[in-house]
Write a structure and sequence with these properties.
Blueprint lengths: L4 H15 L16 H12 L6 E12 L5 E13 L3 E8 L2 E8 L3 E6 L4 E6 L14 H7 L13 E6 L3 E9 L5 E10 L6 E7 L5 E12 L6 E10 L4 E12 L22
Antiparallel strand pairs: 1-2, 1-13, 2-3, 3-4, 4-5, 5-6, 7-8, 8-9, 9-10, 10-11, 11-12, 12-13
Length: about 270
Amino acid sequence: MVQPRGRKVVAGAATAMLLLGCHPRPTPIRLDPIPMQKAIGIVNANVAKITGTLRASGSVNGFFTQADGRRRSFHLDGVLFYLAPSYFRFDLKKFGDRQLLLGSNETSYWVYNKQDDAFHCGRLGHPEDVPSNMPLRPQQMVAALGLSPISPANERLVPIQRIVDDYQQILFVGVDEHDRRVVEKEYWLDRSPPGLIGRVLFRDHNGIAEMESRLGDYRVLGLDGPMLPYTMVAEWPGQGVRLRFRVGTWRVEHRVKPDGPQFATPPACLGGEH
């Protein structure tokens, strides 16, 4: 019996792989869907293992879109500090010269970029204090890195679950000023081990993605610490901004406290000016 040509090609390729010592990739494990609260509990139990100030260092690259529509790429060194629930610092430098700084503490948050050579300051819980054309928000970055717990339900947002091939999605639905139901944020949990956050999305009132992050390469910190992502890609489609953070090292800095200089409100943001 004559084999079809396509079957011969496939068989020949498989034989060549065996002769060259190549092995086909193993089929990825797909976890069965579980109740939403249990899925959220797995993520939150992992986050609860963060017992001190986390420090991550690595390389940051990406691009932003200028006013004339042209893209400008960047390659920077990044250092990140995080202490639950709201202490955050992400410092991006090039040859020691600061290009961008995001930070927050228990009362304030701030964004500095060298292009404007200015601080944009705000009060925690008042995202409107920072201009809408400033895409990077410290508290969104914490969620985008999978470092904060997934809050079940609150008086404004209600979670629902959707299962797709590779993800168990937790969608938070709210009601806008016109009584329309809108999805405001989404956590996509991987349906492969360890079952943690693979993607995070924030949407505007029209359902358009304002920010999206993709997380991967989770590894355990220490012997029994949290599993943390070593790759993070964040995009702000409306602003034409893309950022990739490749973490070289995660560690716990127990000496960095809430009153440390890493989380101090910059002088430019003191005095009630926003």
